């Protein structure tokens, strides 16, 4: 797909691996350096991204009507500065909880703006027939970074101290910005903004809600993502506190299955070419939801570890097949002048759903116990396939196979 796409992919990869190394670093620093309690750690994990989502709302039109590559470079540099401020403050003895919270909000906001700009940029950079391949490559990179980054990050923290992975994450944003500046293809002129009205902020949601298929996919995605992520803290309590899993087994249980993301993402183009988008949405969309209930049956020891890994692997394989097809369909069915606002609306909805459902899951676990909470979440997610759309007969069903491998 050309040199310029290679630089875009390199920017995505270096940023993803940096984030993988720094996964969970802010809560860890809050505990190890600032002696934060459970309430403060929960606030850092939930409130920061939620506030970031709110701040990102008025940014959507600003991103939409500007050239996307400068926006991507700018948000990378903002994230670099925010993350780099933590090791600097730590070295000077000035690090505080308020700074961690501000950094969490800034990074969450910049992430949404970057995602909106990069999706719009990708649509103009890559031929339509190659969009699925491009999204599949991003998907595979994302899952491999999750599989490799956190274990390496944990080892680095143990050897070099609590802020080393934050510094690595900061540098990754700087390298991403440098990669983006290497892209030489000029951007087309951005759309001209209409008369300035508050309605422009909401145009992304309007487009989603007026498109029957996108609306169904949007609602389904919010619930599935929110319910899956709601199990993470509950499962951590069950495995580490109730069942006595050592930390290395807990990390392995989540890192190793992420390699399944390479399988699903590499199969995406072939599966769509053979069976069509509609069947992928129905089958893979259903299969990513039905396995979560299996976490209820986790027991101590090797059998429990294998159970968690098997459930996570089944979810991730189907999710990594489903996600690039969803991303491609969303770009194909969104007009160019609405891409950034639509992607912003999508990210905000997903991030908000994750924050709300994670908080509710934690309250339920505190009131009833982690296994009961996992049962409720596992049963609720079984209903989400009912929201998956049935594409109309005239919808695109097959994508021609080209020689470009994923």
Structural notes for this entry:
By secondary structure, this protein is an all-alpha fold. 75% of the residues lie in helices and 0% in strands.
One letter per element, helices H and strands E, the order comes to HHHHHHHHHHHHHHHH
Structural class, by secondary structure, is mainly alpha
Please give the number of β-strands: 0
Largest sheet: none
Distance between the termini: 11 Å
Question: Count of DSSP helices?
Answer: 16
Which helices and strands appear, and what pairs or packs with what?
Blueprint: H1 3-21, H2 25-32, H3 38-56, H4 59-64, H5 68-92, H6 97-125, H7 131-160, H8 164-181, H9 203-210, H10 212-242, H11 247-255, H12 260-275, H13 277-290, H14 301-332, H15 339-368, H16 370-381
Helix pairs in contact: 1-7, 1-8, 2-3, 3-6, 3-15, 5-6, 5-8, 6-15, 7-11, 7-12, 7-14, 9-15, 10-15, 10-16, 11-14, 12-13, 12-14, 13-14, 15-16
């Amino acid at each position: 797909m050309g040199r310029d796409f290679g630089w875009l992919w390199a920017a995505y990869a270096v940023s993803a691996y940096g984030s993988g190394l720094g996964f969970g670093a802010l809560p860890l620093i809050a505990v190890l350096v600032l002696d934060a309690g459970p309430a403060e750690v929960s606030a850092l994990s939930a409130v920061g991204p939620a506030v970031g989502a709110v701040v990102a709302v008025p940014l959507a039109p600003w991103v939409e009507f500007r050239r996307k590559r400068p926006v991507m470079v700018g948000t990378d540099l903002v994230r670099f500065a925010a993350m780099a401020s933590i090791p600097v403050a730590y070295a000077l003895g000035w690090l505080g909880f308020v700074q961690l919270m501000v950094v969490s909000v800034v990074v969450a906001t910049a992430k949404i703006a970057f995602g909106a700009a990069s999706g719009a940029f990708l649509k103009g950079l890559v031929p339509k027939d190659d969009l699925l391949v491009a999204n599949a490559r991003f998907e595979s990179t994302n899952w491999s970074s999750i599989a490799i980054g956190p274990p390496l990050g944990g080892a680095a923290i143990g050897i070099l101290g609590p802020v080393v992975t934050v510094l690595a994450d900061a540098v990754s944003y700087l390298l991403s910005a440098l990669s983006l500046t290497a892209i030489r293809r000029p951007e087309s002129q951005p759309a001209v903004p209409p008369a300035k009205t508050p309605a422009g902020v909401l145009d992304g949601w309007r487009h989603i809600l007026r498109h029957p298929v996108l609306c169904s996919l949007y609602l389904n995605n919010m619930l599935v993502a929110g319910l899956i992520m709601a199990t993470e803290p509950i499962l951590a309590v069950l495995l580490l506190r109730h069942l006595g899993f050592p930390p290395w087994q807990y990390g392995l249980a989540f890192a190793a299955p992420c390699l399944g993301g390479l399988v699903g993402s590499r199969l995406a183009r072939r599966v769509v070419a053979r069976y069509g988008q509609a069947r992928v949405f129905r089958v893979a969309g259903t299969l990513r939801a039905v396995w979560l209930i299996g976490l209820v049956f986790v027991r101590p020891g090797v059998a429990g570890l294998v159970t968690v890994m098997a459930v996570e692997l089944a979810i991730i394989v189907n999710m990594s097949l489903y996600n690039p097809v969803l991303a491609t369909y969303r770009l194909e069915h969104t007009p160019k002048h609405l891409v950034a606002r639509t992607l912003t609306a999508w990210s905000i909805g997903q991030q908000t759903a994750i924050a709300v459902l994670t908080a509710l899951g934690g309250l339920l676990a505190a009131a009833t116990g982690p296994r009961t909470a996992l049962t409720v979440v596992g049963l609720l997610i079984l209903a989400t396939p009912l929201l998956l759309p049935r594409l109309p007969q005239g919808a695109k069903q097959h994508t021609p196979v080209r020689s470009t491998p994923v």
